[in-house]
Write a structure and sequence with these properties.
The chain is an alpha+beta fold. The chain folds into 6 domains: about 1-70, Helix Hairpins; about 80-325, D-amino Acid Aminotransferase, Chain A, domain 1 (2-Layer Sandwich), CATH 3.30.470; about 330-405, OB fold (Dihydrolipoamide Acetyltransferase, E2P), CATH 2.40.50.140; about 440-515, Orthogonal Bundle (DNA polymerase, domain 1); about 520-590, DNA polymerase, domain 1; about 600-680, BRCT domain (Rossmann fold). It contains 25 helices and 22 strands. A hairpin with a 5-residue loop joins strand 12 and strand 13 (about 350-360). The relative contact order is 0.08.
Length: about 675
C-alpha cells in the first residue's frame, strides 16, 4: 500500500516538476531575453521555491539543467560573447524580515560570531554590466549573460557618460599593487524622469513605448547601432570590483569608496551598519525614500562588509552566501473593473484586458491590466463590475491580484471570452496544446495592425519611419488595409495627411521601396509565421534559395532541415497556405523576388563543416560571422566536440580554444577565417 502511495506521489511530483521547469524557463525567456516579464519577482521566486522543495523531497528527480541550478540568461546571438573572469551570479531574494534574520543567523554560525558590520544599498532595477580596464583603459564591457559568459556590448557601454574611459592608474596601483587588470561591476539604468521623457518622444514618433525603465535599458543595451544607444538616457553606477578579488580591500565599504575615488558613480544612499537592528532600520528608511528617489528600486541589497571571508563563505549553485536581496512589497490599490475587452494580436492570439476605473499606483495612473487568458480569468473569477486589488508586479506590470468578493455587485456573471474574433467576426479556435484562443483569419483588421508593425520592424523589412502612430492613421484613413497596400502608397497620399511634409513623405516611400530588396531571410521572417524566428528564417532561405521553392515544399522536406522538427515543419506548411492570398498580393508588388545570397552547399569549402566561434573579431560581429558561414553551407554551434571541424578564435578567446587544441580541432585566426570565406571551391 505504501509502495503504491509512494509511486503515486512520485509520479505527481514528476508531472509538477516538469510543469514548473517549463513555466520558469518561459518566464526566464520573457524577463532576461525579451525584457517583457509577465509576473512579479515574488511570483517568480514562489515558483522557484516550490520547485526547490519538490527536488529536495524527491532527489531522484533532480537535474543539472533545472532552473534551480542555473541563473537566467540574457544572451543574444547578435553579439559575440566572452567568459566572465569570475562568475556573475545572482543574489538570493527575501521578502520578509524572518528571512533576513535567517540570513544573519547563518552568517553568525558560519563565522563563529555575529558579523561586525553590513552594508545596505538600494537595489536599483536595472541591467548588470561588467567593465574591464587594462592599465587604466576601458577595453571590454559585458552583460551578465548566463552568469558564466556575457555578451560583448563594449561600444554601447562607451556611450554612457558615467562610465570612465580612462582611469587614474596611479590610484589603482597605489592600492592594488601591480595588477594590470581591473574589472568593475555595476548596474546600467534609466532615471525615472528621463524614462518618461524618452517614452513621450517615442510616442510622438509613433514608436512602441517601454513598460518600465528596466525594459527600456535592456532594449537599449541590445541595440546594434551604438549611435542610437548614445541617444538614450542611460546611466551607470558601480557596486563591486570583481578583479582583483574584493578581499584585497578588506571591507566592502572601502571597496565602494575606492570606486568612487576613481570616478565611478556609487549610490549615495548606501549605509554601513553594525547590527541586525540597524539593518532593519536602513531597510525601513530606503522604503520610505522609495518614491522620492530619481531612479526605480525594488528593494535593498544587504552585504557582509568583511570581504576577506567572502571566498570562504562561498556560494550555492546560483547565489553568494554573503549577500541577500530584500524585496519591497509591491504597492497595491483597489479599483473597479469597468469592462473587459478582448484584443487580437499579430498571430491571432486573443488577449483579455481589464479596463479599470483609473487609480494611482506606484506613482502612475493605472487604467488597464492584462488578464492573460480564459484560464487566468476563471482562476481568479474576475467579473465586470468587481472591485479588485491590483498591483504592479515588481513595480512593472499592472495586474489583478484578487477580487474583493464581499463587494461583488448582485447579478454579476462569470466572464467568457467571445467565440468570434472581436475584430473580424471569424470563429475563434484553441489549437492543440495551447491555452490561448486564436483568430485564424489572416485578413483580420486587428491582426493587420500588428502584422504591419512586425513587417516594418528592424529584423524584418526595416522600414524606417513607419511607427505605430502612422500605421494607425493609415488604417483609420483607409489608405491601407493590410501589408500589400503599403507598396501602393504614394507621396501625394501622405501629403494629404496632417503631420507629413515633402521630405518625410519622400523618405517613407523610399524606405518602403527599398524593402523590396531585403534579403530573402528577412522577408520570410516578416511574414510572421508561427515558430519561425529570424534564425529559422535564415535556415529556410539558405536551404531553398528562392521563395517559390519554399512554397512548394512539403512537411517531410522541411523536416530534413537541421533543427526543424515535425511541429515547426507542419506549422510552416500550414501558415504559408493560410497566407496564400497575402503572399500572392505581395508577389504582384515585387516582393520575394530576392534569391538567398549563398553558393550551393556542394561548391563551397565551408559546405557541411561545423564551426565554433570564440573571442572578438575585429572585422565583423558574431552575428555576421555566423551568417557568412551559413551562407556558404556551414553550421555554427556553441560548443567544441570531436565533430567540430574548425574553431575561429578572435581576440581574447575563451576556453573553447583550449578545448579545441586538446581535441586536435583546427583553430583559425581571423585572417585564416577570412581567407577561407573568400576561397572558391
Amino acid at each position: 500500500m505504501n509502495v503504491e502511495h509512494d509511486g503515486k506521489a512520485l509520479e505527481a511530483a514528476r508531472r509538477r516538476i516538469a510543469q514548473l521547469r517549463r513555466e520558469i524557463s518561459r518566464h526566464d525567456e520573457l524577463y532576461y531575453r525579451r525584457a517583457e516579464p509577465e509576473i512579479s519577482d515574488a511570483e517568480y521566486d514562489a515558483l522557484v521555491k516550490e520547485l526547490e522543495q519538490l527536488e529536495e523531497r524527491f532527489p531522484q528527480l533532480r537535474s543539472k539543467r533545472s532552473p534551480t541550478r542555473r541563473v537566467g540568461s540574457d544572451r543574444d546571438e547578435n553579439f559575440p560573447s566572452m567568459p566572465h573572469s569570475v562568475p556573475m551570479i545572482s543574489l538570493a531574494n527575501s521578502y520578509d524580515r524572518a528571512e533576513v534574520d535567517g540570513f544573519h543567523q547563518r552568517l553568525t554560525r558560519a563565522l563563529g560570531h555575529p558579523p561586525e558590520a553590513y552594508v545596505v544599498e538600494p537595489k536599483i532595477d536595472g541591467v548588470a554590466a561588467a567593465l574591464r580596464y587594462e592599465n587604466g583603459v576601458f577595453q571590454v564591457g559585458l552583460t551578465r549573460g548566463d552568469g558564466r559568459r556575457g555578451d560583448v556590448i563594449t561600444e554601447n557601454l562607451r556611450t554612457i557618460g558615467d562610465i570612465p574611459q580612462r582611469l587614474d592608474w596611479r590610484k589603482v596601483t597605489a592600492i592594488l599593487d601591480a595588477h594590470s587588470m581591473l574589472e568593475v561591476r555595476g548596474e546600467v539604468y534609466m532615471p525615472l524622469k528621463e524614462f518618461r521623457r524618452f517614452n513621450r518622444l517615442r510616442e510622438e514618433e509613433g514608436l512602441t513605448v517601454f513598460a518600465n525603465p528596466r525594459n527600456a535599458t535592456a532594449g537599449s543595451l541590445k541595440t546594434l547601432d551604438s549611435a542610437e544607444v548614445a541617444r538614450r538616457p542611460l546611466r551607470f553606477w558601480a557596486y563591486s570590483v570583481a578583479v582583483p578579488p574584493p578581499a584585497v580591500f578588506g571591507s566592502h565599504w572601502r571597496e565602494l569608496s575606492f570606486l568612487e575615488d576613481l570616478g565611478f558613480p556609487v549610490t549615495a544612499e548606501r549605509r554601513r551598519v553594525e547590527s541586525l537592528e540597524e539593518v532593519f532600520e536602513s531597510l525601513d528608511e530606503l522604503e520610505r525614500q522609495r518614491e522620492s528617489l530619481p531612479y526605480q528600486i525594488d528593494g535593498a541589497v544587504i552585504k557582509l562588509d568583511d570581504t576577506t571571508v567572502w571566498e570562504q563563505l562561498g556560494s550555492t549553485a546560483k547565489t553568494p552566501r554573503w549577500a541577500l536581496a530584500f524585496k519591497f512589497a509591491a504597492e497595491q490599490a483597489e479599483t473597479v473593473v469597468e469592462s473587459i475587452e478582448a484584443s487580437v494580436g499579430r498571430t491571432g492570439v486573443i488577449t483579455p484586458v481589464a479596463n479599470l476605473r483609473p487609480v494611482e499606483l506606484a506613482g502612475t495612473t493605472v487604467a488597464r491590466a492584462t488578464l492573460h487568458n480564459q484560464d487566468e480569468i476563471d482562476r481568479k473569477d474576475v467579473r465586470i463590475g468587481d472591485t479588485v486589488v491590483i498591483e504592479k508586479g515588481g513595480d512593472i506590470i499592472p495586474k489583478v491580484v484578487h477580487v474583493v468578493l464581499e463587494r461583488r455587485p448582485p447579478g454579476s456573471r462569470p466572464y467568457r471570452l467571445p467565440t468570434r474574433c472581436p475584430s473580424c467576426g471569424s470563429p475563434l479556435k484553441r489549437l492543440e496544446g495551447e491555452v490561448a484562443l486564436r483568430c485564424l483569419n489572416p485578413l483580420c483588421p486587428g491582426q493587420q495592425r500588428r502584422a504591419i508593425q512586425h513587417w516594418a520592424s528592424r529584423d524584418a523589412m526595416d522600414i524606417e519611419g513607419l511607427g505605430e502612430r502612422w500605421i494607425d492613421l493609415f488604417l483609420e484613413k483607409g489608405l491601407v488595409r493590410g501589408i500589400p497596400d503599403l507598396y501602393d502608397l504614394s507621396e501625394d497620399d501622405l501629403l494629404e495627411l496632417e503631420g507629413w511634409g515633402e521630405r518625410s513623405a519622400a523618405n517613407l516611400i523610399s524606405a518602403i521601396d527599398r524593402s523590396r530588396q531585403r534579403p530573402l531571410a528577412n522577408q520570410i521572417f516578416a511574414l510572421g509565421l508561427r515558430h519561425v524566428g529570424i534564425s529559422a528564417a535564415r535556415q529556410l532561405a539558405r536551404h531553398f534559395q528562392t521563395f517559390a521553392k519554399l512554397r512548394e515544399a512539403g512537411q517531410k522536406e522541411l523536416e530534413e532541415i537541421a533543427d526543424f522538427g515535425p511541429t515547426t515543419a507542419r506549422s510552416v506548411v500550414e501558415e504559408l497556405e493560410r497566407r496564400r492570398e497575402l503572399i500572392d498580393a505581395l508577389l504582384q508588388r515585387g516582393l520575394f523576388a530576392t534569391v538567398a545570397e549563398s553558393a550551393p552547399r556542394s561548391e563551397t569549402p565551408l559546405a557541411g563543416k561545423t564551426f565554433v566561434l570564440t573571442g572578438t573579431l575585429s572585422t565583423m560581429d558574431r552575428r555576421r560571422a555566423r551568417e557568412r558561414i551559413e551562407e556558404q553551407g556551414g553550421k555554427v554551434t556553441g560548443s567544441v566536440s570531436r565533430r567540430t571541424d574548425y574553431v575561429v578564435a578572435g581576440e581574447n578567446p575563451g576556453s573553447k580554444k583550449s578545448k579545441a587544441e586538446e581535441l586536435g580541432v583546427p583553430v583559425l585566426d581571423e585572417k585564416e577565417f577570412l581567407e577561407m570565406l573568400e576561397k572558391k571551391a
